[in-house]
Design goal:
The chain is α/β, with parallel strands linked by helices. 42% of the residues lie in helices and 23% in strands. The strands form two sheets. It has a six-stranded mixed sheet. Strands 1-4 form a two-stranded antiparallel sheet. Helix 2 crosses helix 3. The chain is globular, with a radius of gyration of 20 Å. Bound molecules: zinc ion. Zinc ion binds next to loops.
Length: 217
């Protein structure tokens, strides 16, 4: 098994994120004060006095996914299957992410399935995997592919399917202002890609009609 530091480097390389020293909390708070001033307000007024610190604490939460290596997360926990070879599906995994173009919320749900080879993971780990990628700056297509590819790489299953449905606040609260629109992306690997019966079974379980407008990534 790779060492922890090697794992982190792998993640960084995969996401194209150079691991650079983080600015201090004070620097981050100063940046928020600059944005408040840019918005036209006075960061010194009473109501805004605690805002920079609160925003930075919120960032710690929104972007906590950078601190976890998803490959290590799954590797630590897989078990041999003892012959279980039916589809494993976890549906309606709610997530909150942020788009990398506007740092606006992306709120939606992910459906994750795999057809075990000889390894399975606890379903809570599937939810954690979604969360680790969600708590980063994202685009939905990339997040869909990352979840599927990581499961495929670590579990070596016979197939992986990931479908994500999400609303993007950068579309609903700014720009084109289109509320109620959700985007659906999918990535199918192995049996889910090659076997229409398996794919249909999965789509029926998660309640997405086969033949609906999935964007494959
Ligand atoms: Zn955006």
């Amino acid at each position: 098994m790779a060492s922890k530091s090697a794992g982190l480097q792998t993640v960084a390389a995969k996401n194209g994120v150079a691991r650079r020293p983080r600015p201090s909390r004070a620097d981050a708070e100063a940046a928020v004060r600059t944005l408040l001033e840019y918005a036209g307000d006075d960061p010194a007024r009473e109501g805004l006095a605690g805002t920079p610190a609160r925003v930075v604490r919120a960032y710690d939460e929104y972007f906590s996914g950078y601190d976890t290596d998803p490959v290590e997360l799954l590797k630590r926990t897989f078990e041999e299957t003892d012959g279980y070879d039916e589809m494993v599906v976890l549906k309606d995994i709610r997530f909150e992410s942020h788009c990398e173009h506007h740092i606006a919320p992306i709120i939606g749900k992910a459906h994750v399935a795999y057809l075990p080879g000889n390894r399975v993971v606890g379903i809570s780990k599937l939810a954690r995997l979604v969360e680790v990628y969600a708590k980063r700056l994202q685009i939905q297509e990339k997040m869909t592919a990352q979840i599927a590819n990581t499961l495929d790489e670590v579990l070596r299953p016979k197939g992986v399917a990931v479908v994500i449905e999400a609303a993007h606040q950068c579309m609903t609260t700014r720009g084109v202002h289109k509320p109620g629109v959700s985007m659906v992306t999918s990535r199918m690997l192995g049996a889910f890609r090659t076997d229409p019966t398996t794919r249909r079974e999965f789509l029926a379980i998660i309640g997405v009609p086969a033949g609906s407008a999935l964007t494959n990534v």
